[in-house]
Amino acid sequence: MEMIKKIAVLYGGSSSERQISLQSGEGVHKAIKELGYESELLDFKNITNFNELKIYDFVFIALHGFEGEGGELQKNLDDLDILYSGSKEIACRNTWNKRLTKEILKKNNITTPLWLETKLNKQLVEDGLQTSFFDKFRPYKYLFLKPEEDGSSVDIFKISDNESLKNAYQKCINPNRSFLFEEYIEGRELTVTIINKECLPPLEIITKNEFYDYDAKYISDKTLHVEAELTKNELDKIKSISLDAFEALDCNGWARVDLLQDKEKNFYIIEINTVPGMTSHSNVPKSGSFLGLTYNEVVQKIIDASF
Questions:
Q1: Is residue 17 among the annotated active site residues?
Q2: Which residues does the annotation place in the binding site for Mg(2+)?
Q3: Which UniProt keywords are given for this protein, alphabetically ordered (predicted)?
Q4: Is the entire prediction scored with pTM above 0.90?
Q5: pLDDT averaged over the chain?
């Protein structure tokens, strides 16, 4: 670690998650300076040549959305032998795309809710939920409709009937892309932070909203993120399935694994985030706090896990 003196914090960008990325980057930048490193904040939208980053010993990626999590950035940094935080190109591509994530999880016998890939178009809405396309889910009370590629719960809808499907189509910010219909699992929503292949204490997310949507994540002050109450057996299981998913998707350094637990106490992987939020109220530093770790100490652990 003696070689690491000057760290660039890459943040911002142009995705729908820009505002969250700005908060994450500012928090990480402040922590890095307080930890004794030199540091500069760099907005990704101002980067014109990746060679600009070669003057830094290390790049901390606090860039959310496709620009930071889709794999292209990691490929460019690897091509220039620039050290950076988090997973490599392939893991990022596979986790950014929810269909690929689920296919890899299924191949490795890791439980994930059932899904179907679709296009969100007028024909789908006109045909409705009664077609044979939805037979694999029956019987069902709800389905989730979500983009195959996106973050921060943008364009995610809870579907119960043809009217809610029609409303989702009308409200969708960007319907011109691939979507997934996903099985609705009734139960608890949980998240596990992994740093250097070690699980931090799992969190349970409790929201007053219908589900953990964008408002519940970033706007509502009624959403709770609490240390999950789990039996020793449940704790062992959630850590095991989270690490299995982390390794099956070839993740590196750090990530956040999002899960559901059904009424029968079974765990299901929803997705893996290779560049989790690092705002002051994000799940990663919150999980660390239950081990007595400060925000700065969590940042240092992420840097250490990159080598």
A1: yes
A2: 258, 271, 273
A3: ATP-binding, Cell shape, Cell wall biogenesis/degradation, Cytoplasm, Ligase, Magnesium, Manganese, Metal-binding, Nucleotide-binding, Peptidoglycan synthesis
A4: yes
A5: 93
